[in-house]
Design goal:
By secondary structure, this protein is an alpha+beta fold. It has a single domain, classed as Glucose Permease (Domain IIA) (Distorted Sandwich). About 10% of the residues lie in helices and about 25% in strands. It is built from three helices and 13 strands; from the N terminus they run H-E-H-E-E-E-E-E-E-E-E-E-E-E-E-H. The longest helix is centred in the N-terminal third of the chain and has 15 residues. The protein is globular, with a radius of gyration of 16 Å. The two termini are about 25 Å apart. Pfam families: Peptidase_M23. It comes from Aquiflexum gelatinilyticum. This is Peptidoglycan DD-metalloendopeptidase family protein. One of its GO terms (molecular function) is metalloendopeptidase activity.
């Protein structure tokens, strides 16, 4: 399997948020144990969690927050979706989150077709989710967009062509987005492992090496 950077070396990419994220418009957000503010925030209450996230953006004067690729996170205890045996608890985040206002449009970074989509409903889940399939130089890989608006799924069809730079979904509001502060979960996969309309977005510590080979860093399609 080629590295993502080599595969896309001479390929034009459209930024997923319509503009490249950098210090002028975004800040890095930390939801790891290093963030000493998190224990003071009731993350089980989405409105409280939302005020915290957007308070950080307002204080910084930025439109977007970003981060999370293979970050050890402490926010998944808010939902039973991630619960397993304690030794195998899934709290390693495998995609990148981009936090922003509900309704913010999302764009296809490359030409694609709709592989699958599903409303993964439930507190702490993805909510409305779209998976696109890309083929570059004969190599197929996939991009996942989670926490969308329900309306984004209404007229979608499997196999539908999506052009690079096309606006095809939006950051969804809570609770329909899986009951999270509005953000995009953006993740790349070389292999969907048989999944349709869904793919694990977090893994356990023991599975980090396995999933790092499957989920490359999507920063090249975001900026920063």
């Amino acid at each position: 399997m080629p590295s993502l950077e080599n595969l896309l070396l001479d390929v034009s990419i459209f930024p997923v948020m319509g503009k490249w994220l950098d210090a002028s418009n975004s800040i890095k957000m930390d939801f790891s144990p290093k963030n000493k503010e998190l224990p003071t925030v009731d993350i089980s209450n989405t409105e409280t969690f939302n005020r915290y996230v957007f308070g950080l953006l307002e204080k910084a004067g930025k439109r977007f927050g970003h981060g999370g690729y293979f970050e050890h996170r402490v926010i998944y205890s808010r939902s039973a979706v991630f619960a397993t045996q304690e030794s195998d608890f899934r709290d390693i985040h495998m995609g990148v989150d981009i936090w922003g206002e509900a309704g913010t449009p999302v764009f296809a970074p490359l030409d694609a077709m709709v592989h699958s989509f599903h409303d993964n409903a439930g507190f702490g889940n993805y909510g409305p989710t779209i998976i696109l399939q890309h083929k570059i130089k004969g190599t197929v890989f996939f991009s996942l967009y989670g926490h969308l608006a329900k309306s984004d799924l209404v007229h979608l069809k499997i196999g539908q062509a999506i052009s690079k730079g096309e606006k095809f979904c939006h950051l969804g509001p809570f609770p329909e987005n899986g009951d999270w502060p509005p953000h995009l979960h953006f993740q790349l996969m070389w292999d969907l492992m048989g999944n349709h309309g869904d793919f694990p977005g977090v893994c356990s510590h023991r599975d980090i090496d396995k999933f790092k080979t499957i989920c490359p860093d999507p920063a090249i399609m975001i900026g920063h």
